[in-house]
Design brief:
331 residues; binds zinc ion; alpha+beta; 5-stranded mixed β-barrel; single chain
C-alpha cells in the first residue's frame, strides 16, 4: 500500500519553520516533496499562499519566494503557510498542465489519493492544508499569450456572506481591477472546492507576455495589501502605480463577454487592456494565413465595455478566445 500524503514537520510549531508536503508516489511517478514555509505567530487568521498551480505562470512562485524573505520580520500575528510551487512538474516544464498526466491541476480538486499525479497533489493539499486555514491566496497569472491588468479574480459564490467577504478582501489588494468572473469551466477548481468548504479564496491574475520587474512590484504590493487587510502585517495599504495611475475598479464579466476568433489565424490586437470601447469599436483583427485571398476579419465590441484581457499576438484556432470584455460591477 502507498504511503499517505504527509507533512515532514509540525505546522503548529511556533514562529518560522520549513519542511515539505509529501505527495505519495503512484503508477505514473515517484513521490513529490513540495517545500513549505510556515510562520506561526499565534492568535489571528490562518492563511495559505500557493503559487505554481499552472506551470507557465511564474509571477506567483517568485512573489511567494519574496514573501518567505520578508514575512518573518513583518508578520505580527496569525499563521501564514506558503507553498511557492504546488505543481513543480508543470513549473519545470513551463506548461499550464502537468506534463505527466496532461491534467490541469486547477480542474481536479479535491483530487484523489489513488489518482494520477495532479489528482494526488490536489488530494494532499485538500486533506492536509485546506482544513486548517481560513483564507487562501492562490497566485496565478495569465501566462505568456495574454495581456491582462493586475487583478484579483473571483467567481460568483452562492453563499452571499462568503461572496461579500471575498469581494471585500479582493478589493483590499488595491490592484487596478477586481473582477467577478462568471464562466462555465469552474468544476474542479481549487477556488470552487475552497468555497464549498466555506473558505475565502483570493485568486490573483496578471498577464503581459513576460515576467517583468514592474509587474512583480505591483503584484507583490497587492499581496502585501491583502496581508494588511487580514491584519497579519501592519502598514498602510496603497494603490500600486499602474500606467501612471493609482486606482482600482471592480468589474464583472460573463461568458457572453468573451470574444472568439471567427477563423484560425494570427490575432492582431487593436486595443489595450482597460480601454473603454463602444459598440462597433475595433478590438482586433484576425488574419487567416492559409490563403491570401481570404480577407482579414475585424473583431468589434458588441457593446459598450471595458477591455479586460486581450491575446498578445498569437496564432489561434477558430472559436478560440481572443479578448475578454467587462463592465462595472452592479450589485
Ligand atoms: Zn493560472
Amino acid at each position: 500500500m502507498n504511503e499517505a500524503p504527509h507533512l515532514t514537520f509540525d505546522l503548529d510549531t511556533t514562529d518560522v519553520s520549513t519542511g515539505h508536503l509529501v505527495v505519495p508516489k503512484g503508477a505514473d511517478c515517484e513521490a513529490l516533496s513540495l517545500p513549505v514555509f510556515s510562520c506561526n505567530r499565534g492568535e489571528g487568521p490562518t492563511l495559505l499562499i500557493t503559487g505554481g498551480n499552472h506551470g507557465n505562470e511564474l509571477e506567483g512562485p517568485i512573489v511567494a519566494r519574496r514573501l518567505v524573505e520578508w514575512l518573518p520580520e513583518a508578520q505580527k500575528c496569525g499563521r501564514i503557510i506558503i507553498v511557492p510551487e504546488i505543481n513543480p512538474l508543470a513549473v519545470q516544464a513551463w506548461t499550464r498542465n502537468t506534463p505527466i498526466d496532461g491534467k490541469n491541476l486547477n480542474r481536479v480538486f479535491p483530487g484523489r489519493s489513488d489518482g494520477s499525479v495532479s489528482e494526488r497533489i490536489a488530494d494532499a493539499i485538500s486533506r492536509l492544508l485546506l482544513p486548517m486555514v481560513d483564507t487562501i491566496f492562490d497566485l496565478h497569472s495569465f501566462g505568456p499569450t495574454w495581456n491582462f491588468p493586475p487583478a484579483v479574480i473571483t467567481h460568483p459564490i452562492a453563499d452571499v456572506d462568503l461572496m461579500t467577504k471575498t469581494l471585500r478582501i479582493s478589493e483590499a489588494f488595491k490592484l487596478p481591477v477586481t473582477l467577478l468572473w462568471e464562466h462555465n469551466d469552474t468544476a474542479g477548481m481549487f477556488d470552487t472546492w475552497a468555497h464549498s468548504q466555506g473558505k475565502i479564496f483570493i485568486c490573483t491574475e496578471f498577464g503581459g507576455g513576460t515576467v517583468g520587474a514592474e509587474a512583480l512590484t505591483i503584484y507583490e504590493a497587492g499581496v502585501r495589501n491583502g496581508l494588511i487587510a487580514l491584519g497579519l502585517v501592519e502598514g498602510k495599504a496603497e494603490y500600486p502605480t499602474f500606467r501612471q495611475q493609482k486606482s482600482g475598479q471592480t468589474l464583472e464579466t460573463n461568458p457572453s463577454d468573451q470574444l472568439k476568433s471567427p477563423a484560425p489565424g494570427i490575432f492582431e490586437p487593436r486595443c489595450s487592456v482597460l480601454d473603454e470601447v463602444k459598440q462597433g469599436d475595433l478590438i482586433g483583427i484576425l488574419h487567416p494565413m492559409d490563403s491570401l485571398s481570404a480577407d482579414s476579419i475585424d473583431i468589434c465590441a458588441p457593446t459598450t465595455s471595458i477591455v479586460c484581457g486581450i491575446r498578445s499576438g498569437v496564432y489561434v484556432q477558430g472559436n478560440e478566445e481572443v479578448a475578454s470584455l467587462a463592465r462595472p460591477l452592479a450589485l
